[in-house]
Amino acid sequence: MPRPLKHVFVCVQRRAEGHPRGSCAQTGGDEVMNTFLGEIQQRALFEKIAVTNTGCLGPCGFGPSVLVYPEGVMYGKVTKADVPAIIEEHLLGDVPVERLRVPPDVWS
Ligand code: FES
User: Fold this and answer.
1) Ligand 1 in reach of 23 Cβ (< 6 A)
2) CB neighbour list of residue 56: distance below 8 Å, 6 or more residues apart
3) Which residue, 8, 48, 71, 96, has fewest beta-carbon neighbours within 10 Å?
4) pTM higher than 0.70, yes or no?
């Protein structure tokens, strides 16, 4: 298995209704995950880009959260409409999508 150039983690954490932290499942994490998988398949990028669903990444208030390594770029409030931009600009073009980054103080 080739080592991927980028690894995308999509938060699909689920929490009970009314939980104070909410969850990315409630704000569309599954839809974002499925859109990534569909786009990666359509573009035949499986050998270059890995996509993994994950539990809570931390900034629940900015969900759905998406984390991209090796850069460690955290995106927030990602919608399925944002996925092509992340793929084209960041994953393939190596330029993070600034408008989708969480505020810098999320990671102190
Ligand atoms: S539930 Fe997704 S970042 Fe916490």
Assistant:
1) yes
2) 11, 13, 21, 23, 24
3) 71
4) yes
pLDDT of residue 107: 77
Q: Which atom of ligand 1 is nearest to the CA of 62?
A: 3
Phi, psi dihedral angles at 90 (to 5 degrees): -95, -55
- The response to whether residue 53 sits with its C-beta less than 6 Å from ligand 1 reads no
pLDDT of 42-90, one tens digit each?
A: 999 999 999 999 999 999 999 999 999 999 999 999 999 999 999 999 9
Ligand 1 centroid to 4 CA: how many Å?
24
Query: Cβ-count burial of 42 within 10 angstroms (0-12 exposed, 13-18 middle, 19+ buried)?
Result: exposed
